[in-house]
Amino acid sequence: MIADNARTRILERLRAAAPNATDGLVAAPTLSRRIDAHFDVRRAMHAPADAAALTDAMQAALQAAHAEVWRTDEAGWPTLLAERLAADGVRRLLFDPQGPEGAALSRTLPSAVEAVDYQRPIEDWKRELFDTVDAGFTVARSGIAGTGTLVLVPDARAPRTVSLVPPLHVALVYADTLHADLHAAMRAERWQDGMPTNLVLVSGPSKTSDIQQTLAYGAHGPRRLWVLIVERGGKAPSAAVSGALSGAVSAAVSAAVSAAPSSAVPGAVPGAVSAQGESA
Fold it and tell me: How high is the pLDDT of residue 247?
């Protein structure tokens, strides 16, 4: 009897404290406008980062997170990647051969590298997937230069398993899809208009550390990450990082990123976002 009374009191307090169903509809757009205004003010203080600066920043951030990065062009990336895979001893590569990038890669893969596509439920080939696939190849929707983050949109032909299970994750991102920070990506791509069921953010190879701060790679995902930054329809940017970004541009990127707390994601955005590779 006492337990029932306590339960009743708790439920009554929860019901009384529950927000009105319309409160969220009003609060979310208001919060989004406040976040937009905050970043607009921060960006107005600095010159905008140009495409070259964003590419430099993306490469530098990825390399700082222990990823290997190559800058190339549309014509050259399939051959470059095929040669790197063969040299690394990759025997089985998981990817979507039906997309334009997958088709281009299929034409250049040496006979020593077997192309594996994702056509079966994972229950039917889990052991084969975990034990025999050496690498997975994905094409990023975009990139966040300030943090070296790849934005992946998994689908039926290239589910998130492709970027999470194989010990080597190879990702291609186009230079013209790079954004300075998460807020810029959300605004430019209009995430508020709808998101996929799952959005994967990759910021380096999988890493974790124990209570003694011993860093380990590959405990929860790929222990290595390769990234191809591809320039469309023109000469590839320099393969070497040009150095630290000059004053105003560097400040624009770093200020925008540092001002973007995880709690600043507008509540109006539906869908799920999972982060991979970042260590707290």
Answer: 38
